[in-house]
Amino acid sequence: xxxxxxxxxxxxxxxxxxxxxxxxxxxxxxxxxxxxxxxxxxxxxxxxxxxxxxxxxxxxxxxxxxxxxxxxxxxxxxxxxxxxxxxxxxxxxxxxxxxxxxxxxxxxxxxxxxxxxxxxxxxxxxxxxxxxxxxxxxxxxxxxxxxxxxxxxxxxxxxxxxxxxxxxxxxxxxxxxxxxxxxxxxxxxxxxxxxxxxxxxxxxxxxxxxxxxxxxxxxxxxxxxxxxxxxxxxxxxxxxxxxxxxxxxxxxxxxxxxxxxxxxxxxxxxxxxxxxxxxx
Length: 280
Fold this sequence. Notes:
Order of helices and strands: EHEHEHEEHEHEEHHEHH
Structural class: alpha/beta
Number of strands: 9
Low-confidence stretches: none
Distance between the termini: 42 Å
Number of helices: 9
Largest sheet: 7 strands, parallel
Radius of gyration: 21 Å
Helix content: 40-55%
Strand order of the largest sheet: 3-2-1-4-6-7-9
Number of domains: 1
CATH superfamily: NAD(P)-binding Rossmann-like Domain
Strand content: 5-15%
CATH architecture: 3-Layer(aba) Sandwich
CATH topology: Rossmann fold
Mean pLDDT: 93
């Protein structure tokens, strides 16, 4: 049987490629984007298999309406892809409150509103999966991308709790963590006003990424959507080695400071409130 998809950010980049991959194999897709005209080629090519939806994910009411429309039209929702988002460049000191809030409104709250809207549908079905597109920027960080990383790390933290909360309903959550690809991401970057004091740092950290072919991610996304036991996290691309080194260093530091950590625990008495099954 075909699957039904709800994909945000379907006008270009990963969202567009993944919508096409699903449609080409006979699935049906509710394709959401700010610009409806960008969805015209999908409709022309795939006809009624596409449900085009104009959507700004920062509009919570509109998100709920869009999800209700998609569910009514398609009959059910099997795969939710929270893909809408953009990047922001600026040192932490350079990022204004308005810029940071805008980044969080789209990348974080947009994903939250979609998640809120689809959960009643998925719970009623007792099945479904949510793919949260966080990027490698959800598990590591570069200087100059603090606002972007904050939004993606927030999605990762929220969704790790979510995965545990909804598993009993037959709902799976996967963090999709792409590395650098030749998508339109770089052309959609927003930037903060630069402070002269960071000029040398900016030059020193200028990234030199090996960019992957976004077309190659299509089969990976279909594999995740079809997996009987989908993973909580999947890195797309060649960034595993760098991420492994970062997490190895974190473990080394935690171990080195474990005596301090244990000393900070104190000496609980029988009257102390302690629940072994819970930890932070």
